């Protein structure tokens, strides 16, 4: 039973790149939060994402977010906890949140589009 609950909770609170891509841009209820360092966001980010670094997230910095939206937080990928940190803070503030499994890394591996200053998004992976 513990293993069932573990996997069920992962699916309840995470979304993979293919699932997210299928929802964008049509789902107006959904919003993307890039929880990485602002410079990484400037170089490359998911289409339509807003920059809200996990380390700078406060009730004031999140105050402009709409309560009725589902927020998908992402970081660089495996080993980066920016998405989880941002998600935890947002949930504590009363927002509905999921994280993007694999973050930017898995999004890029699928060949999905990015926005930003550079064409080579892997260069934007630094925190």
TrEMBL record:
<dbReference type="InterPro" id="IPR050229">
    <property type="entry name" value="GlpE_sulfurtransferase"/>
</dbReference>
<dbReference type="InterPro" id="IPR001307">
    <property type="entry name" value="Thiosulphate_STrfase_CS"/>
</dbReference>
<dbReference type="InterPro" id="IPR001763">
    <property type="entry name" value="Rhodanese-like_dom"/>
</dbReference>
<feature type="domain" description="Rhodanese">
    <location>
        <begin position="26"/>
        <end position="116"/>
    </location>
</feature>
<protein>
    <submittedName>
        <fullName>Rhodanese-like domain-containing protein</fullName>
    </submittedName>
</protein>
<dbReference type="Pfam" id="PF00581">
    <property type="entry name" value="Rhodanese"/>
</dbReference>
<dbReference type="InterPro" id="IPR036873">
    <property type="entry name" value="Rhodanese-like_dom_sf"/>
</dbReference>
């Amino acid at each position: 039973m513990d293993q069932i609950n573990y996997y069920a909770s992962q699916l309840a609170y995470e979304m993979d790149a293919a699932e997210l891509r299928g929802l964008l841009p049509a789902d107006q209820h959904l919003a993307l939060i890039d929880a990485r360092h602002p410079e990484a966001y400037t170089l490359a980010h998911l289409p339509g994402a807003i920059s809200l670094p996990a380390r700078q997230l406060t009730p004031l910095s999140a105050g402009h977010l709409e309560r009725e939206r589902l927020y998908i937080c992402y970081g660089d990928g495996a080993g980066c906890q920016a998405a989880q940190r941002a998600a935890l803070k947002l949930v504590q503030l009363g927002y509905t949140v999921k994280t993007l499994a694999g973050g930017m890394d898995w999004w890029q591996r699928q060949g999905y589009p990015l926005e930003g200053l550079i064409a080579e998004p892997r260069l934007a992976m630094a925190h």
